[in-house]
Amino acid sequence: MTGEDLFREIGKIDNKFIQEADNCYAKHDFKRYAAIAACIIIAAATALNSSSVQAAIKRLFSFIPGIAITEETEDSKNEILYSMDGEEQTQTDGNVEFTLMNAYVTSSYIDIMWKATLNFNDESKDNETVTELAEKYGYSDYIKPNEEAMFPIPDLYSTVTIGNAIYPYTENTSAGGSPTEQTCITRIENIENDIAVYGVNMPVTITFCDMTFDIHFKPIQYYDSVDEIGPTAMHNNISVTAMPTWSENKLTIKLYSLNYSEFLQVYGYYDDLKADATLPYIIIKGNTIQAQVLSGDGTEFEFDLSGLDITDEDKKSAILHIPVISVGNQENVTLNINAHDDGTIDHPDKISFKYCDVDIISMWINKNNPDNEITMTYRIQKKSDNIGLCNFTVASLNNKSSGIGTWKQTSDNTDIEAMGFHADAVPSKKCKHITFTFPIYTLYDEYVFALS
User: Fold this and answer.
1) Using an 8 Å Cβ cutoff, are 13 and 56 in contact?
2) What's the whole-number mean pLDDT along residues 118-145?
3) SS3 state at 319
4) How far is the first Cα of the chain from the last one, in angstroms, to the nearest whole number?
5) Using CA atoms, how far apart are residues 121 and 125, in angstroms rounded to an integer?
6) Rounded to two decimals, what is the model's pTM?
7) Alpha helices, DSSP H, located in 114-176
8) Lowest mean pLDDT among 150-154, 331-335, 403-407, 426-430
C-alpha cells in the first residue's frame, strides 16, 4: 500500500487499521514497516476528522517485558496499570531454582510469572518418587503429584502476600514445561481495594519452596507504535516485533505479535514438523547462524556467537530472518465414513479447511491396537503458495468428544502423513462421522528485521 492509497482508504479504517505494506516498500525500509499506518493516521487525523480514525488513534500499544505487547482500548475491562520494575531474578537452595520473571497488575487482579527448575527431579521418576523427594527436601506444600499427567510433571503451588493479606499455597497455571522445569503464572483476583489503597506502591511478595521475592512495580509504558519498542515487520496483517538482547557469546531474541489477521491466534515462529529447515536465523559478519529454541511456546530463540568477535557496528548491521510463522484458526470439518467388519473404511477423497485441502489416501481400523484405533494417511494440498497446513486435531467421533486419543507422524522423505485416533465412547466400527478442528497453518511470508 502506497502513501497515496493509505490516505484514500483512511476514512474506512476499522480495528484492523494497520494494513500490509507492499513487498517493494518492505525491502527498502522495513524498520518503519508496521508503524507506517499508525504514524500517518496520527499526522492526518486533524485534517480528516473521521470518527473511525479518531477511534484508531486512541489505540495505544503497551509493552509488558516478558509477557506480551497488547493494545489498550477505552473499553478494556481489565486495563493494565503496572508492570514489574526490574529484571528477572533467580534464587536457589541447591535443589530448586526459583526465578521471578515478571508481574503485572490490572484493574482487578495481579499476574505473576515465574519459573521453577527442580534439580532433584528427572523424567524417569514417577509421581510417587516425586512426592517422596518433595517430602524429603521439605517441599511438599509447594510440589504435589499430578496424577492425571501422562509424564511425572508435578503441580506447583506458591504463596503470595499483598499488604496484610496472605494467599497461601495458591495453585498456578502452567505456561509450559517439563518434569524438571516449569513456567507458571500465579493469578490473585479481586484486589481492587489493595490497588486503591497502595497504587503503584502495592507491597507484593511471592514464595516458592521457602524462597521469597519482593515485587516492585512501575506504571505501564505506552507507545504510539510498535516500532518504538523494537524492530518490527508485518505480513498478512500480523505485526511481529523482535526484542534483541546481546551478551558476550550469544544473542537472545524474544518475539511478540499483534494479530490483526482473520486467524484466531499466533502460535510460534518455526514449523514443528520441519524445524531444521524453518528455524529463524541471523546473518552477521557474513555468517549465517541458525537459532536454538528457548521457550516452549516458540517465541524465544538463542543464537550462539562463540568464536566471533562481534563489535557494536556488527550488531547494528545484523539481519534477523523469520522464515515462517504458525497460526491457529477455529474451523471444523466433518468426514462421513462407513466402517466394515474386516477393518476397511469407505471414505471421501478429501476434506477441506479454509486455506488447505487434505487428500485422504487411506483409512482403516488398526486391529493390532488394543483400542482398535482408526488410522488415516493423508497429503496436504495448499490452496495458495504462502499458506501450508501444519496440524489439525480430532474434535469428536459421532459428535461425542470424550476420551479421544490421537497420535500423528510424518513419513521421512515424503509428503504423506499419518494420524491415528479413537474414542472410548465410540467403537471404531460404529463410527460414522469424524469432526476435525483447529487447523494450525504455516505462513511462509518471511519476516526480515534489521537489529540496529
Assistant:
1) yes
2) 73
3) strand
4) 25
5) 7
6) 0.71
7) 127-136
8) 150-154
Better pLDDT: 6 or 289: 289
Between CA 71 and CA 51 the distance in angstroms is 19
**Total Cβ atoms within 10 A of residue 350:** 15
**CA distance linking residue 244 with residue 317, whole number of Å:** 13
Residue of 205, 188, 187, 178 whose CA lies nearest to 116: 178
Q: Which residues pair with 310 in a beta bridge?
A: none
Q: pLDDT tens, 219-257? A: 988 787 788 888 999 999 899 999 899 988 899 998 988
- Name residues whose C-beta falls within 8 Å of residue 404's C-beta, 6 or more positions apart in sequence: 394, 395, 396, 397, 421, 422, 423
Pairing of strands 222-223, 173-177: unpaired
**CA–CA gap between residue 47 and residue 268 (Å, rounded):** 40
- 197: its cell numbers: 489503597
Alpha-carbon torsion, ordered 61, 62, 64, 70, to 10 deg: -50
Q: How confident is the model at residue 276 (pLDDT cuts 50, 70, 90)?
A: low
**Cell numbers describing residue 237:** 496483517
Compute the half-sphere exposure of residue 158: CA atoms within 13 Å on the CB side of its CA. 29
412 Cβ partners below 8 Å, 6+ apart? Answer: none
Average pLDDT over residues 12-35: 27
Q: 397: which 3 cell numbers?
A: 467421533
- C-alpha grid cell for residue 246? 546481546
What are the backbone angles phi and psi of residue 48, rounded to the nearest 5°?
Answer: -85, -35
For all residues of the chain together, what is the average pLDDT?
A: 79
Q: Phi and psi at residue 378, in whole multiples of 5°?
A: -155, 165
pLDDT of residue 52: 40
Dihedral over alpha carbons 30, 34, 35, 40 (to 10 degrees): 100
Query: What average pLDDT does range 352-359 have in this prediction?
Result: 96
Distance CA(119)–CA(180), nearest Å, equals 7
* CA distances in angstroms from 171 to 103, 155, 157, 382, listed in the order given: 16, 8, 5, 43
Nearest to 101 by CA among 77, 140, 68: 68
